[in-house]
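chain below, 1202 aa
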Amino acid sequence: MPLDAIRQQIRANYLPDEDEAVKRLSAAAGLSAGERKAISARAADLVRSVRGSTDPRLMEVFLSAYGLSTKEGVALMCLAEALLRVPDTETMDDLIADKIAPHDWSAHSGGSSSIFVNASTWALMLTGRVLDEGEGGIEGTLRAMVRRLGEPVIRKAVAAAMREMGEQFVLGRTIAEAVKRGRPMTQKGYLYSFDMLGEAARTEADALRYHRAYTDAISSLDAGSNGPDIRYNHGISVKLSALHPRYEVAQRETMLPVMAERLLSLALAARHSRMGLNIDAEEADRLDLSLDVIERVLAEPDLAGWEGFGVVVQAYGPRAAFAIDWLYALAKKYDRRIMVRLVKGAYWDTEIKRAQTLGLSGYPVFTRKANTDVSYMACAKKLLSMTDRIYPQFATHNAHTVAAILSMAKDRESFEFQRLHGMGEALHETVRQVEGTRCRIYAPVGAHSDLLAYLVRRLLENGANSSFVHQLTDEEVEPEEIARDPLATVETQGPAANPAIARPAAIFGAGRRNSKGFDITDPVMLAAIDKARAEFAGADRWHAKPVTRAAGYGKQRRIVNPAKPDEIVGTVHEAAAKQVATAVRIAVDAQPAWAKRPVSDRAAILNRAADLYEANAAEFFALAIREAGKSLADGIAEVREAVDFLRYYAAEAANAEAGTEARGAIACISPWNFPLAIFTGQIAAALVTGNSVIAKPAEQTPLIAFRAVEMLREAGVPEDVIQLLPGDGPTVGAPLTANPRIAGVCFTGSTEVAKLIEKQLADTAAPDAMLIAETGGLNAMIVDSTALPEQAVRDILASAFQSAGQRCSALRVLYVQKDVEKKMLEMLKGAMEALNVGNPWAISTDVGPVIDDEAQASISDYCKKKGLEGRLIAKLEAPATGRFVAPHVFRVKGIEEMEREVFGPVLHVATFDADEIDAVIAAINRKGYGLTFGLHTRIEGRVQHFVDGIHAGNIYVNRNQIGAVVGSQPFGGEGLSGTGPKAGGPHYLRRFRKGPEAGTEVGEGHKVTATELADNLPDPALGDWSTRPDRVAILRKHLRGKGAAAIAASASLDFGQVDLPGPTGEANTLSLAPRGRVLCLGPDAETLLAQTIQALAAGNAVLAVAPGAPAALSALTGKGLPLAAIDGRPDPVEARSLRVDVVAFSGTPEEARIVRKVIAERAGPIVPLVSEVLNPAAYAHERAVCVDTTAAGGNASLLAAA
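prediction:
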């Protein structure tokens, strides 16, 4: 079959049906029942022989004692991953205490036959209890003694233990040391394939350093080559990701020639040294790119006659067999003999997570271990039939796999086995002695600080209960069970796909389907996207206008491409000011009939709209790129988020109905930076809750909004229920928000405009008119010395510069611990230099334009000013034409220097000492914003410290701080960053409906003065009320049946951390935090009690002011609660300057209007007026926390499920 045809097979099987793939491979294995029985019997004999002949290697015993099914095993993995790179003793001590102190090491005491493992257990147990400061008995005396010796002793001991772990896997710090340490095995007849340790190159300097290391290693091994046959000489393994910082499909055109040149130079050096060079396999999305590199290099005439070019193939991928076919055809085409190392696969958990995150149609790997084992057998049989061109290298520690290969092979000379240094020694020594087979040892070489990612990957692969290595050391597992035929397992397991691993489309459960993903690393999909979006590349392609029956148009305006301002994308007829009032009247009239329709009908319309969005995704991609200046990747994320909003709100709508009613006509005012996602999210929430909508899109992006409304109407939204009024703020926005018939405003934009809207609503709208405002932020990230620099820099770049920094969530101020500042900033600068600034239509573009001339001028002026102050750390160059601002990084002392949010690709960097963390938290909180916050650390206790201390709506740990996913990371801030509730969260829809209000008049009483209010205002910082988990129970006990409805409503909320669904390898939680001080104004006794109960239940401090307040609250006062009650008539004007965070008042509309107007005039954050009698969520902030649980190296729980 021609190479191109095989390549198409490879591409077609990227995400295949797993059942069909396993059937194909089972047949390809071609083993009879008798052969299978004999292989299993032979494998069981091998297990018995290995168990009886020698003690297992130290690391194998260690894995048995501390497998990943134990918390202690996971803690050790995390400690090993981070400890050796931490330069400062204070953070090192914190990390050791964090990983060792909380765990039950005594449960492992005496559980192993190894003296070293038991000694390690006792050391960890002792150290853990020292750090935990327990006392008692002889152990207490010993702990006291160690504690007197001090933390330096513990630190040195634990660091030494981690190095000992490392030496079990790493042959040497240098090639010379590795060759020397490997000599005993070489003398037995083993050979080595050396791998130079390190992460993927993040910078060009990294890539050159790795290339030099590979070159030097080859040179060092030259003298040890024993002749021309590469099978009898050592070899080297090379990671392509180490040779270029942008080893990505998007950078193919510029990356490929450089990568090929670097790989060729290494191949020529290896040829000269008569040794083999293997190209290690990496993530599945890089396979197609790797094949391009491989063909380009192998075709070089200078490599003719050399048989040492090797490629690693991962059997866990359904494309493995096709890749082998392609390599064989390639070798024939260029008349080469090559090596193929067959491995099970090293990135399985990463592939599962990526597919779920991207919403792919399937997985690029098998989801069961048995399926991979069958694939390995089929691929091995194929390789053994291709020995005229391929020298197979079978890397395995599995006795059944070894037995199968011995059964299938016609001889013992045409292949070799391979194992990892430190693993599988007894198995392969037994086979070598009995069968005379060759065995090569894959041996990492490098500094201990570089081994961490490799070490953790090995721990993850082999520490799971299902792994062969783990089972081999567990005497309770029978040899026949370990040697079970995977073909038999596949035949009896039912469906090939693992039911414990949700399909990417189903990660959110039965309630809703995940949005469709578009993988732009897949050549087939990328070609389809390019073909589809090409239809929308022409000039003046779209024409938008008001979507309303209200007559009359305003001015016509051209919309231009911000990357190419001379390119007209389309035109818009804007709404005229006179249309606004008519549109509101139409919306008000249409709303009651819409609200009467069953919620299931409204939800079904949203789901149909989601399907239409996906069907028209290519047009939306083109609009996002050409109208809003987004990259293709951002355009895809935009469509997916919009679809997720539609489906999520459709699924949640019924939960908001009980005891509430729709509000009426809602004004939805959306921003240009998410012109489809936020636009759609606001509208979808309003519609599904029974409201009508007048949508005003940002004046920069009306075209995409127009198409969205057309699709919403096509999905079934009645024409008068949704209207679109494109235009600017003065012409459309101001009269819309000033219209007294508007029942609420949903707004995303600047803090200043949100305050103006609140004042306008207070003046003209009903006093209970809703305002949901999501505004900007001065978002910070803290990186401590335990963080992995490569991960941190990756996430810093994405957070600060993706979307040209034009995200509310974007990183503005980076705090780096001083101990790692130099390394971190050098890597940050180098990684920045690898970014491409340019036209976002090109897939290679990383940073596109800013939105308009005004933004470009403002950001550029700021950068010039900071540059003149001598603050510049790094900057890139921007294209000369178009609305571009190059990424800049400036040095600041801290966030306190920031006067405003700079809404563009501008990052500020400050440093901190290890003992200044609390000071940094306080500085961030003092700015008053609270949108997103990022943290890179390996210290779990520190994570909780930040979650408890930082006032931010969304906290991200060990990942970037942008791209909140609907339903997984509900998005929205607090303080100056927004009012709440969070979009895409469980409390959002309830805000679009209203419950009963008391509507009673304030009774007579003395006028309470400002001084009285201030003197009686409780301090929420005093006592532990805000952190107590039993607040509702305490209130219920004191009240003895009073306020039952409010108690029930509060009890229905979960104030603890609620787990939210999402992709594997990520922990998403939502919790409710107190807002602070609540002013409860009743006005009647029953309402006042209900308000007070809900405010206290949320953890707030409460000042209750109303005639008869002390009597109404007598059951709660004097009980040590943060509550004060004043008997008197509240005067809102007297409360104007009172420092409160919520005001609760459910009086007459006339009185409520006065209260709202007073609090709307206050400076600072918008203070909500809670007018409903029962709405407990209104008294709390929502806090969403997202933790990348794979950051320390992998996903232990997922691997256990395989």
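Residues 122-131, 133-149 have pLDDT under 50 and may be disordered. Residues 66-167 form one domain.
thats it, cya
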